[in-house]
Amino acid sequence: MNGQPFTFNAIYIEHIQSNPDTTITTTSGRTFLVKESEEEVVRQVKKFYQQIGLLRVVDKVGEKDR
After folding, report:
1. Is the dihedral of CA 60, 45, 8, 51 positive or negative?
2. SS (H, E, C) the chain
3. pLDDT digits (tens, 9 = 90+) for 5-51
4. pTM (predicted TM-score)
5. Which residue of 16, 18, 25, 62 has the fewest C-beta atoms within 10 A of its own C-beta?
6. Contact 14, 28 (CB under 8 A)
């Protein structure tokens, strides 16, 4: 929120919450307050997962369960 951009590894996101500010909590318990909406953060995380091939793996695992 200080206007400085930063990037962190989306694999370590535990949950994203907006009430009304968007807060990202990592698996290590660190909390980040970001200016993007929850929907935008989720969209960017999904995009990252697709780029590294992780989303396709998750989709294929889900198909086996059907």
Report:
1. positive
2. CCCCCCCCCHHHEEEEEECCCEEEEECCCCEEEECCCHHHHHHHHHHHHHHCCHHHHHHHHHHHCC
3. 888 888 999 999 998 899 999 999 999 999 999 999 999 998 888 88
4. 0.72
5. 62
6. no
**What are the residues facing 18 on neighbouring strands?**
22
Q: Which strands sit side by side in the sheet containing 31-34, from one edge to the other? A: 13-18, 22-26, 31-34
Residue 37 burial by Cβ neighbours in a 10 Å radius (0-12, 13-18, 19+): middle
Looking up tokens 């793996």 gives 57
